[in-house]
Amino acid sequence: MNRATHAPDRPPPLRLWPGVLIVVLQWLLRFIVPMVLPDTLMFGVIAGAAGGLAVIVWWLFFSRAAWSERVGLLVVIIVALFATSRLVHPSIAGGMMGMMLPIFAIPILSLALVAAAAASRRLASGPRRASMVAAILVGGGVFTLVRTGGITSNADADFHWRWTATPEERLLDQAGAESAARKVEGPGEMPPAPVEPRRQTPSMVKTFPDWPAFRGGGRDSVVRGVRIETNWSASPPVELWRRPVGPGWSSFAVSGGLLYTQEQRGDHEVVACYKLTDGEPVWRHQDATRFWESNAGPGPRGTPTLHEGRAYTFGATGVLNALDALTGAVVWSRNAASDHQIKVPTWGFASSPLVVGDLVIVAVDGTLAAYELATGAPRWTGPADGGSYSSPHLMEIDGTRQILLMSGVGATSVAPDDGKVLWQHAWKGWAIVQPAQIAAGELLLSTGDRLGARRIQVKRTGDVWTMEEHWTSTRLKAYFNDFVLHRGHAYGFDGGILACVDLQDG
């Protein structure tokens, strides 16, 4: 039947096969292929967006729909995206997830449009248009029913139903119930006094070696003087205890049978001390501040540093604390963000404190800042080198002690006493992981993302420092997780895949 012989209440036949083919390819490249080949995720995201554009081109110019339907449904899609962005859960509306919402929504709206067109192709114009509008609104409305707990290592969203409690909410409910039970059972409402920590014994020292700072004493993730059983078939690991803690990206520092970390608990950023033997809390220090962003969730990002009976901590909003390691009592406290007039970066301050001599040094979004250990008085400020989520790193190169920081401009080395710049190696990228010292003057750097890893040689002649690049490899793109050096190789995560490269040639 040709177009002229159709009944007036029947629409012309739609040309569906291009739209169906586009959506099949879009979903295959956006979702199926990255599940099999994780390194193709970014290609899949681009394919999803390109598929959405191709669907619009098909609908506007090749679908044979009436022009009122073509333009009208395009307007409905735009309105659906706008309305969805206003109705979604805060974890999706804000931060990076807010910018990523179209990336997730475009394939679903494309599918909704094509599927509705196919299902309603034999209906009269009115019912067909109504069904297609409903399908698009339902496709966009799906995102109002979910929240996200952040993203995975492969940048996939960790979706949950909107009405389910977050792990932090469950922890707060549990803590509230326990607090109420204590009030019923005991006369006092004051928090319990700090628990006297167990004193070190030779067996405890042997079993639990000190791990006083981020990635250990040398910031290299190497445990010295301990042999770990690696035959897990003959001697499998045994869980000794388990305790829920608040969210955050802080790891643990260990000393004297106690472990220390940072957590978020509601509106308070918490420095917490637990017994290593059974996980029982010893003390908690609270600061009335909260950091949250949609990709990584709430909580502090830095790991405590233990030094001579004190715990030094740096929170996600810039609070720098010096606390008594046994009681949690405040020795001094500063706000490094206010001190240096630096805004909290997108993913929060993520620097772990470094103690050098009589100073504690933190990276305030790419700017090194040193404070006196005894009083917390500011001592010096380094150059403002742009965004950084890395931590200051003490090294000795060519007989000179220096502090390295990966930042938005690359690697910067400064003198510990005054923050004077010694040398810089320009290599722009994502400054998250730590530099590693291969040998005297030999460094392994990484800026993550697509840039990979680089080995450089640093030398000093008189007062002049020179840097020479040995190789750059994209086979180990350390991004969030640091790499480890062992017997001439570097081990780490290349995206979400464990990888190893030869230090000689990358």
Any overview of this molecule?
The relative contact order is 0.06. A hairpin with a 2-residue loop joins strand 23 (452-461) and strand 24. The protein is globular. The longest helix has 25 residues, at 95-119. The strands form eight sheets. It has a four-stranded antiparallel β-sheet with strand order 3-4-5-6, covered by helices on one side. Helix 1 runs antiparallel to helix 2 and helix 2 packs across helix 5. Helices cover 27% and strands 30% of the residues. It has helices at residues 17-36, 41-61, 67-87, 90-93, 95-119, 125-141, 167-185, 202-207, 336-339; strands at residues 146-151, 157-161, 253-255, 258-265, 268-275, 281-287, 292-293, 297-298, 305-307, 310-314, 319-324, 330-335, 354-356, 359-364, 367-372, 378-384, 393-397, 400-407, 410-414, 421-426, 436-439, 442-448, 452-461, 464-473, 484-486, 489-494, 497-502.
Number of helices: 9
Number of strands: 27
Helix-strand category: alpha+beta
Ends: how far apart?
Answer: 66 Å
Shape: globular
Biggest sheet record: 4 strands, antiparallel
In helices, the fraction of residues equals 25-40%
What percentage of amino acids are in beta strands?
Answer: 25-35%
> For the residues shown, what is the average pLDDT?
87
Please give the order of strands in the largest beta sheet: 3-4-5-6
Gyration radius from CA atoms, angstroms: 28 Å
Residue runs with pLDDT of under 50 for 5 or more positions: 185-205
